[in-house]
Amino acid sequence: MSTRINDGIRLEVAGENALMLYFSDDGQESLVITPSISSNVQQATQLIRQHFSVEIIDLIPSYASMLVVFNLLEIDHHHLRNKLKTLLKQCVSVSNKQGRLIELPAYYSLESGMDLQRIAKHAKLTVTQVITLHQAQEYRVYAIGFAPGFAYLGEVDERIAMERLTTPRLKVPKGAIAIADRQTAVYPAQSPGGWNIIGLCPIDMFNAQTEPMMPVEVGDRVKFVAIDKLKFFELGGKLTEMES
Amino acid sequence: MSKLTSSARSEEYAQALGLIVTNAGVLSLIQDAGRYGAFNLGLTNGGPADSLAFYWANRLCSNELNSTAIEISLGGLELTAQVDCVIAVTGAPMPLTLNGQPKALWRSFLVKAGDAISLGFTPLGVRCYLAVAGGFDIKPSFGSTATVCRESVGGLNGDKLVKKDVLPCQAVSKADYRLKQLMLPEHEQPEYANEVKLHTVLSYQHAHFSNIEKRVFFSSEYQISKHWDRMGYRLQGRAIKADVAGILSEGICYGAVQIPADGQPIVLLNDRQTIGGYPKIGAVISQDCAKLSQCRQGDKVRFEPISMSQANNMFHLNLRRFTQTQLISYA
């Protein structure tokens, strides 16, 4: 069921009314996050939005993939597959646009980051070094999803990359700054989740009453700036009891 | 996100008349057919967990299929009507009474101002749908009235129904076409069971599961764990392993079967996260997701592999059966 569209794009089945497009530099499965692949995803998103109307219900662009959810009353997977093939052949690498730089405050500590110690142990580093490495990087917003306002940021320094938990937690607190492999993110609301928590961010990542609803958009750059507990409370942060 | 408080919300609907919640039950949610086109904000679909029962409730009330209704999980919802209206309840066999008198599910009937509607607890299945002729008049958020509690979006205030909520609806008058009382023939009414077969298309990272792992997956019986909700059903049974632990986070479709490192499958449903990084072996077709959502802890499921073309056929056959089934006028 796998179709190769060109050297950089592969098409797979996702579900009854969904197809997946996978993007890479060499036609192989990509586990690497690169700004150029991300730009290709954005380009394909625009092309699909322009060329389809009623056939497509929704799109979820991500780091190196795009979920295409289609309307089974308008088109079937054979036709959509063929149309996407023709359309996306013209997709070529584009230059990577620089987004805005957004700074997010971060209260890193053992009380706000229940997995800090575990990451440090795993990385054979001190907790302070883990915090320093997380702050040192400038991240790109690669995708938004999972929950309203959940922005996927990459890439985390290889030394502090950490696998997801074997069993996801049922409750991750709002504002949790977390790491999964080489991705990092801030949980916009309390939710279940399997990422490793290293601190808390007091800023709202999603608020339907404000315009824009989110402080970041795909393509923006993000830096975390460490703040102390007092500043965290001043900015409206809250400490809730955490599930270990 | 900031939530409108209940009091602010009741003010908004203070002038409206409809059905008043006198007991909200375990989990009663405002739902329309779901929220589509808001994935770019990270908003999930929501919508009725058992869409078939939901659509039947609306058809019985001569409504547009997307009309806003109530999804009642397990039972316990009690309402008092402020206006004359026509309602229908479909889904799991919850004992339904009108002013204490038993009423049948799968048919529409007249409710008079002052009447008390009550739903007991279901011995089988999980969810019921209560629709009203004309639909409940609720303001959509992000294009839909579907309630997703985790996102605090939809419904009256982004949350489940609580006592004293007013669900506005139009009154019916004597000459109204909506007064027509309809029923679904008994042999067309779905049966709910403690065991379901989940037809599944192999997809996503299925190539990362060996043939042996796939055989284990498709030949084993799984039990629904204590974690089952509108977001997803966590199952327990033979663990299966992918040859990768995680993947780059990517879009998750309705019915996707995620396999975390502990090897226990999770079937993702209406309120699922839109993006995730656990490997997925396939996706359950929508009509079987609806059946799964009528199961609870301890119930048993099996997965059966089907091709994308078979899935397509099943979808259209199911749809055809729904559209061609005639309702009976019984009054």
From TrEMBL, chain A:
InterPro entries: CT_C_D, Cyclophilin-like_dom_sf, PxpB. The keyword ATP-binding applies. The keyword Transferase does not apply. GO terms for molecular function: ATP binding; hydrolase activity. Residues 9-216 form the Carboxyltransferase domain. It comes from the Bacteria. Keywords: ATP-binding, Hydrolase, Nucleotide-binding. Gene3D superfamilies: 3.30.1360.40, Cyclophilin-like. This is Allophanate hydrolase. It comes from Colwellia psychrerythraea.
TrEMBL record, chain B:
Residues 40-322 form the Carboxyltransferase domain. SUPFAM superfamilies: Cyclophilin-like (SSF50891). Keywords: ATP-binding, Hydrolase, Nucleotide-binding. GO terms for molecular function: ATP binding; hydrolase activity. Pfam families: CT_A_B. InterPro entries: CT_A_B (IPR003778), Cyclophilin-like_dom_sf (IPR029000), PxpC (IPR052708). NCBIfam families: urea_amlyse_rel. This is Allophanate hydrolase. It comes from Colwellia psychrerythraea.
